[in-house]
Structure formats: structure tokens, C-alpha cells
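S1.2 Input.
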Amino acid sequence: MYGYRVADDVTPHDRNPVPRGKFKALYIGGPTSIPGGSGGGDVTILGPPANYRAPEGQAGGTLAGQIDGITAPIGDIGKKITFSNVPSGSVLGVAGTHVLSTGTTATLIKALN
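S1.3 Output.
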């Protein structure tokens, strides 16, 4: 349905990238890791680095960094992005290289490629 071929377990880390060094999307499998919390958790990522090519035909700066066809807004290239209260069982359709431990409370995360 989504066109992903592999799903790698992710251990959030502030310096180490995800397995394979990138992801097209993230699957958020578990609730927040905060004691007593339920439902969704927060996910903090690093957006795609600037050395990924911009999509064909995009001018004027609305889209830039790209990983295998997934694009990120110019302001998000290589920057921290936090998604708050991401529901368990959802696919977060964002590309990046790292899931940061600082700011991530969601659990059972998979990197989809």
C-alpha cells in the first residue's frame, strides 16, 4: 500500500543514524515512554541533509531535500523536527536520517524504506 520494502527497528539516539542511514517514513508502534502516559508519543527527527537532490521542477524554495522521492520543506533540511502526540499504530510520512532520543517519547519505532 505504501511502497515500503523494509522495516528496521529504531533505537532513538542523539548521534547515531537509523539503520541504513535514512528513512522514508516511520511507523510508531507504541505509546509514550513517560510513566503513566497513554496514547501517542512525541517523535523528534533530523530532516534530510541538504546534499539530497531537490525534486525536478521545484523552484522558488517550497521543497528541497529528498530521500528516494520523499521531500522535506527547505526549513527542515538537516534540522530537528518534533512531532507531538503521534498516535500509536500510525505511519509518520517524513524522511530523515536520525530519530533523536532527546524529545522522543514514542516507543516501538520502525524506520521504513
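S1.4 Remarks. The radius of gyration is 14 Å.
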